Amino acid sequence: MNIKTFAQALTADQRRKLVKLAGTNIAYFSQISNGHRKASSDLARELVRASKQLFPNDDERWLTLHGVRPDIWKQDEAA
Which range marks the domain in which residue 21 is found? Predict the structure, then answer.
C-alpha cells in the first residue's frame, strides 16, 4: 500500500500511535504522506514496521517499502 492511501485511511488515534511507534511526529509524517518530503530509508523501514504493529492481523493495511519510497525500492524488493 502506498503511504498516501495508508495515511488517508488512518484515524487520528491510529496516526498518533503510528508516529510514536515509528519514532517520528505527526507533522513530518503528514509531509511525507502528502509528498512534500521523502522518508529516509531508515524511517521508511520504521513506518513499515509500525504499520505491522498497528494492524498485526490485517496485512492488507500494512505499508510496504515500495509504498513509502518507490524511488528506492522496486515492487518485488519491497516485501
Answer: 3-77
Neighbours of 11 (CB within 10 A): 8
| Model confidence pLDDT, tens digit, residues 63-73 | 999 999 999 99
Q: What does pTM read for this prediction?
A: 0.92
| Total domains, the chain | 1
- Report H helices in 3-56: 3-9, 12-22, 26-33, 41-54
For the record, the C-alpha cell of 12 comes out as 487520528
- Over the range 37-47, which residues count as b (16 or more CB within 10 Å of their CB) and which as e? eebeeebbebb
Q: Are 57 and 50 in contact (CB under 8 A)?
A: no
Q: How far apart are CA 18 and CA 20, in angstroms?
A: 5
